[in-house]
Protein: Nudix hydrolase domain-containing protein
Amino acid sequence: MGRETLGVVVARFQSPELHDGHRHLLDVVESRHPRLLVVLGTARTYVPTSKNPLDFATRREMVRGRYPLALVAELPDCRGDAMWSRALDAIVAEHAPAGDAVLYGSRDSFLRSYSGEHRCEEIDPIEDHTATALRLEAVTRPATTDDFRRGVIYAATTRPPVVYQTVDVAITDDRRRRVLFAKKREDAGALRFLGGFVLPGDDSLEAAARREAIAESGGLEIGDATYLGSTRVDDWRYRGGADRITTALFVAPYLLGRATGADDVDENEWVSELDVTSGAIAARLVPEHRRLGEMLAAHLRARR
Structure:
């Protein structure tokens, strides 16, 4: 192999440190080429995830700490393999204008997905090391050092602000002209709408609304949830920070059952529709749900 070629390692290195398998791959490539380019794949998610917790800058410095002469570039994930291969070739071209480069990977790496113009070689792993195992160890055995705490603060501070999606539901009993609300002991007798956070397993906002309404009413049978609108919630738990909550308000007809309060709700209370439409309910609602009360009142007045 010509010594003038650029050795390229394409990896993610989503681990607290470079493990033996990572270092073996990098050492082999560094021994074969006068220049080493490490291309780090980067997820295009909005915030860090358990699979991709480390940003590019953090991983770049981890590589440079062990391989100070290495070139390090970032390759964001692409929709498909062909597009990703072209993006990788463009990065390689910036560092090897003559096109003299060899791409290296280990078993189950990018090699099967790459369709670009450069030659690829597979490096046999020395042991069955995985970054997944190292991430799991980091979670199950958190360190107690200053550096660890600095890292936690860095991760929480540098991530983009998050808007959390919630749903709130008004269960309406049209026959008796009343609306079901929830009570929590922490609210000192104030009322709130039934609802909660949308979960990853929810297929839609409507499905989340139905799940929350049934859970917090103690298992009432209800009809299909109808969307009324959305609004920002001034949740006291998030004041002072950059994160926010946006909720979608739904109304669902009562069909059958006795409301007993369940999940994180201590009890339910039926309120007359007149108290809602007249605005009398506002003084009894927790402050963050008063805007929802106005939205529901407008809906009930409009359908008369």
Remarks:
- The first strand starts at residue 6 and ends at 11.
- The chain has a mean pLDDT of 92.
- The first helix runs from residue 20 to 32.
- DSSP finds eight helices and 13 strands in the chain.
